[in-house]
Amino acid sequence: MTHTSGNHAHLAPDTLTVAAGRPPRDHDSPVNPPIVLSSTFHETAPPTGSDRIYARMSNPTWDPFEEALAELEGAALPALAFASGLGAAAAALSLVPTGGVVVIPRHAYGGSVSLALAEEARGRLTVRQVDIADTEQVLTQLDGAHMLWLESPTNPMLEVAETAVLTEAAHGAGAVVVVDNTFNTPLVCRPLDYGADVVLHSVTKYLAGHSDVVLGALVTSDAELRAQLTSYRTLHGAIAGPFEVWLALRGLRTLALRMERSQANALELATRLAQHAAVQRVRYPGLPADPGHERATAQLKGYGGIISIELDSRETADALVEAVRLWLPATSLGGVESLIERRRRQPGEPKTVPEALVRLSVGIENIEDLWTDLDSALSSAANTR
Question: Does pTM surpass 0.85?
Answer without folding.
Answer: yes
